[in-house]
Predict the structure.
Amino acid sequence: MTDATEALDAAAADATPALWPWLWRDGLLAASSWAAAAVATVGLPDVVPWGSGDLFATITGLGAVAFVVLAFIVHRLGRLGEVLIHYGPWLIAIGVWLALWELTTAKTGWLPKPFFSPPHGLLNIYVNDGQRLLICIGYTLRLWGLGFASGIIVGYGVGVALGWSKRFSYWGMPLLKLIGPVPATAWIPCTFYFFPTTFGASIFIVALASGIPVAILTASGVGAVNRAYYDVGRILGADSRYLIRRVAIPAAMPHVFVGLFMALYYSFAVLVVAEMLGAKYGLGWYIQFQTAYSGYANVYAALLIMAVLCAGIIRLLFVVRDHLLKWQQGFI
């Protein structure tokens, strides 16, 4: 009997290493956490009705089924499989968070309405108010795009001039240091005088918040270029224009992208305030409108959209940076 037991244990030990590499354990755990969120949503009654609970349970349940399937095939998916494995703990945490979120809001009321909303409450906002939110997204992206683009273009040009010209830096840098610490929203009274429309004033607020960090970091990057590069270029016959385009600007690009990332965050930070200046639509306007009527679930839904938009733009900026700064690989 003992010999037979030892043989079965040895066979199981031999089989486990062969099976385990093909099984994504985090995928099964993620499936369990997402299934728990679905069960909590439909299995327990809501303290206050929110709507779209069945739809949310369906989405999380399908997610759980997908993770079960992926647990057995993830190693065959190549690059996508590697990404899923890398973010496996996050997928588990999201499922646990959704389940706890449901329990503490809709199911127990520990975080009461209207100050807090369960996840299926946010989903209900997207279902019922999705068309207006899409319009607001379009208006917000238009305002942000015009303000951000104009701000970084002007800031980039000013930064190159500050870093290259000592005379321009002598007069311009003190002014930039004086204006820089002042919040962009503090200039709202001046914008009403200088701009004929509230939309133009809103663009200026976003542009100001975007342009200052780009100007400062660009000037720092151009000023930090090794002067020996300029000397070599002049010996070889390069003029000032060539040195700016081919030496100063490429060498300052790492600093420029740091300024762009800072500008992106600052621009989104002032976007809500900028859309208060007479805007008819926009996520900032939507947040202000819903806050006035205690529609906090709608506020959270709009804030989530803004966070996703900002994260997506940041990711796109990282892709552009990695493409333009390929020459840094192996050096930095």
Residues 2-127 form one domain. The two ends are 64 Å apart (CA to CA). Confidence is low (pLDDT under 50) at residues 7-19. DSSP finds 14 helices and no strands in the chain.
